[in-house]
Amino acid sequence: MSFNSGYKLLYNPDRVKTLLEGNIPKPITVEISPTSYCNHACTYCAFDSARNTAQLEPAVFKKLIRQLSKMGVKSINISGTGEPLIYPNLIQFIKYAKIEERISVGLITNGSLLHKADDELADLCSYIRISLDACTPETHKKIHGSDDFDRIIENIKLIVGKKAEIGIQFVLCNENQHEAVQMAEFTKNLGVDYLQYKPIVFYGKDNQLLKDIKFDYLNIIKYADEKFKIIVKEEEFLEICEGRDYKSCNAVKLVGSIVENGDISICCHLKHKPDFIVGNINMLDFNILWGSIAHQRIIDSIDVNNCPPSCGRGGINEFLEETINSTMDIKNKDFI
Q: Which of 25, 107, 220, 325 is deepest in the core (most CB within 10 A)?
């Protein structure tokens, strides 16, 4: 199945209404990168040059969660420049967000440290997505630069069957295209809820490299059933081959991104780029910086033609652009 993330906005009509009125709404989701430390060295990683051994200060992290709750933020996505589970006492912050502040939590991890996490992790998170781009130790080492494939597989088995939705993300690239079909059968046998395929993002590189990759969709999708979903980030693949259908980025008005040094980045793809930093939560509170004049100025400066290809927010932007353009001249909006 393909999945357009823009459809989730139907569950957030208040935010969409604010957008239609020309304002910046409170974010629905905030992505938090608590640490830049990582125990993998993925060949496709966009943030190698940004690794500076920075981590969010614990007091700042907790204060941030409290502020997000008061703003009405619905969820936080813990991912990162580095591996999130390296961050000390991360589980305590997840518990605080989920139990004390009633914010849903998702976790994206390479899976190598799940066995060291609290047994409650997979019951606290709404989802845990493991970045696993191979179904053999050899290919895994080639892409991730680590020898922990077997450990990761055992860790996945530890969390399957708990409350969290468990998924695998497979970033399609030259090094693993030969395992793309085999990956579907392999992950299905692990008992996870879904397998997601997405293209590698080439930051400033020749996209022809991805256009030449073979993707056997029909033989992959046959492994899907009611208990095991296969999700293909179709809009991201199409962006690589056909370009973008949207002319502006509205997704950045709905999703916040905070990096490990406290900077609020306009977008997870543009982390650590000074021109796209709204401010720093070590200096000013998130709720002051979000929706500020500086925030709006940076949004206005975005040229989507210069953004990295295969943006994960493409589905949201397509949905919003069509919605905004088709509703601008509607009269008598209170009647249906």
A: 107
Q: For residue 278, what are its two tokens?
A: 């709204």
Would you give the distance in Å from CA 175 to the centre of its chain? 22
Amino acid occupying residue 34? P
Round to whole Å and give the CA distance between 273 and 242.
27
199: left (phi over 0), alpha (psi -120 to 50) or beta: beta
* Token code pair at residue 171: 């970033």
| Cα angle for residues 167, 168, 170 (degrees, 5° grid) | 150
182 close to 135: Cβ distance less than 8 angstroms: yes
**From CA 128, how far away is CA 89, in angstroms rounded?**
17
Record the tokens describing residue 297, joined without a space.
């100025």
Tokens of 4: 């357009």
Which residue carries 């009633």 as its tokens?
A: 102
Kindly report each contact of residues 12-17 with a partner whose C-beta sits within 8 Å and lies 24 or more positions away, as own/partner. Answer: 12/74, 12/254, 15/254, 16/320, 16/323
DSSP annotation string for 26-71 = PPSEEEE--B---S---TT-S-GGG----B--HHHHHHHHHHHHHH
Q: Which two tokens stand for residue 229?
A: 């979903």
Tokens of 117: 């996490």
Which pair of tokens denotes residue 215? Answer: 């993707």
What is the CA 248 to chain-centroid distance, rounded? 20
Beta partners for residue 170, in sequence order: 197
